[in-house]
Amino acid sequence: MVAFSDGVFTVALTLLVIDIAIPTLAKGSSEADVMNQLGQQMPNILAFVLTFWVVGLSWLTHHRQFQFIRRYDGRLLTLNLLFLMTVCFIPWPTAVLGHYGEYFTVWVLYAASMTAMGFTAAAVWVYASGRPSLVDHVTPELRRYYAERAVVMPTVFLLSIPLAAVWLTAGQYSWILIFVILRILNYRHRDRIAADLRPLV
Amino acid sequence: MVAFSDGVFTVALTLLVIDIAIPTLAKGSSEADVMNQLGQQMPNILAFVLTFWVVGLSWLTHHRQFQFIRRYDGRLLTLNLLFLMTVCFIPWPTAVLGHYGEYFTVWVLYAASMTAMGFTAAAVWVYASGRPSLVDHVTPELRRYYAERAVVMPTVFLLSIPLAAVWLTAGQYSWILIFVILRILNYRHRDRIAADLRPLV
Amino acid sequence: MVAFSDGVFTVALTLLVIDIAIPTLAKGSSEADVMNQLGQQMPNILAFVLTFWVVGLSWLTHHRQFQFIRRYDGRLLTLNLLFLMTVCFIPWPTAVLGHYGEYFTVWVLYAASMTAMGFTAAAVWVYASGRPSLVDHVTPELRRYYAERAVVMPTVFLLSIPLAAVWLTAGQYSWILIFVILRILNYRHRDRIAADLRPLV
Amino acid sequence: MVAFSDGVFTVALTLLVIDIAIPTLAKGSSEADVMNQLGQQMPNILAFVLTFWVVGLSWLTHHRQFQFIRRYDGRLLTLNLLFLMTVCFIPWPTAVLGHYGEYFTVWVLYAASMTAMGFTAAAVWVYASGRPSLVDHVTPELRRYYAERAVVMPTVFLLSIPLAAVWLTAGQYSWILIFVILRILNYRHRDRIAADLRPLV
């Protein structure tokens, strides 16, 4: 199950690169033409980098949660499969964003996909961590801490949609907040949550 | 072997998204044009979602069966490889369905692929579970329960073909029955099959 | 290392399907047009099926050998990486064969790729199995048995090239021999090699 | 974590083959035409082979290092994710190099990507190996040995950029040095670093 989720993440992350296009150059193009053509892939590359970090972060969170989730029932499996579906879907909105980032509609598609992925991940945690039959060593404090972490990303993306409606660029850069807020959360909980050093599995 | 099967499933599931196209927009397209173009991918997205759930469900079933299959012989390996071939094949009929769902021929291709995948999975179980040299802790009851579960999906898809011949839309939506029937099976066997809580591996 | 090899195999097998094309249909195409268009993908599908089985078989062989190979040195790693490179390469000749199977040149490309994959796999086994520092429980008999199995596939593909030069169709169907010869080998060694029942890992 | 990295590597390696194109042949093409068309994919194939070995080598190095890294903290996770992002990115510069290898700009893109991948990998090792809380059994000597090995590849690629500016072909073949230098390093350290025989995991 964990191995399966890991597999979906790795493939989805690796597929992100597929939509960065190989330029088609006319014969006799100069070095400047080439540089220009490659430069036009910049928005695609930025979309690749942003998505890689958001999805990579989701994987980290997912992975940490599953250090506590030790058993599963049918509903958890279904929820987790729903979550993995949103992960598999991500390469498409990423590619669309890389090509047509100047449209508000495209940002809605991208941000909504990220929101769906994030809230499904949060639902997996909230569902499992509240059932002692499924998890081990989960204190109410730890449960809340991980739930807070999990909702940061989708909340920021959700709020970025109305923001982008009035000011597109601001909406598109609001993801920076995710990393800022997670850092603050980390800092606030550093004394309550024990040392972050964990055995490598 | 289990890891190998898991790998094939993850990659196949993730490849499903590749055939959702990135629209090509003329310069100066309006937001309405973009929404329209993205909307035209809706059938592809629906095909992605449907296939994800059917294949995801097959993975769950496969995974559960292999909690009992503890040894293998040459024939089981061959059967399992045949099953994995049908899984690897799925992205193609899915993409064709997403593009040309209005044709009966296309539904035949899709439903037949699903039928082949489902019956091969059932064959793996029936073959292995009948050989005490290959499985542990399989009672006749459990054997039948999993066999019943395994044939639900391919049977529904098989029957959907003649149904689609007379009424295409009804045929194409008959997969809803799969989830209904599985739920009923679950309910009927809930007292006989012990608690569905299993250690997470 | 084994997990890594498994991963390469799964992805390569799954990528095979990518080159089966989605037909482009004009508006108002009839069911017969659709069937016709899909039928034109038949050579691609056959190439997919053939390659799936040859590569799947290679994976089985590789997997069995690594039940005996318990340690590795630098040279084994390099050989294995060389082998994995030939596996990763396979989707290309397969796609070319699916599109232009009527050319002798294309068969040379395909058969040569398979030959390279097969002999590299055999080299991995011959190298490792001859070094007691790398393997456990390998008798000279077992060493020879696996070596014989490993060279069957590449030898048949190698010989298919001159055969295809004089009679293309015969060359292209000579892979049937692989499955026949392996079956005979299995039969001849059935008493010497102990029961084929192995724990599932 | 290790499994995740392995997964990213396997998918990235396997994706490399996707950009080797399937030629489009006019009806009635001769065998010579086919050979000619396939021959035009030669630069793509060479780019595939070169990248496969450089990335494969990086995987080996990464894998060896993680035999010593037994625990992780937040910063190591972030560094490792950064490293995996550079790995996922590689198929794009490889494809561009395969298509337009005659441009200096393209070499800069390719060599810079490799340099980024290599130095990030080195950073992972330098960070982790200097913290006794993260690693086991790392002597200062071993730390230096692996650090030296890790910087060889990116340094050669970095220096190949100015070299390619004055003499493109020389720059493009300077990667040969990587294999030469690693071999010398191996030889020099053979007595200090204990036997290279390791259990297969």
Characterise this structure.
Four copies of one chain form a homotetramer. The first copy, chain A, has helices at 2-15, 31-39, 42-65, 74-89, 91-100, 104-129, 140-166, 168-173, 176-189, and strands at residues 71-72, 198-199. Chain A is mostly helical and 201 residues long. In chain A, helix 3 packs antiparallel against helix 5. Chains in contact: A-B, A-D, B-C, C-D. Chains B and C meet through helix 1, strand 1, helix 4, helix 5 and helix 6 of B and helix 1, helix 2, helix 3 and strand 2 of C.
Instruction: Name the beta content range of chain A.
Output: under 5%
The biggest beta sheet of chain A is recorded as: none
Globular, elongated, flat, extended or rod-shaped: what is the shape of chain A? elongated
Number of DSSP-assigned strands of chain A:
2
Mean pLDDT of chain A: 84
What's the tally of helices of chain A?
A: 9
Largest interface: B-C, 38 and 37 residues
Helix content of chain A: over 70%
Oligomer: homotetramer
Termini separation of chain A comes to: 15 Å
State the order of secondary-structure elements of chain A, H for helix, E for strand: HHHEHHHHHHE
Low-confidence stretches of chain A: none
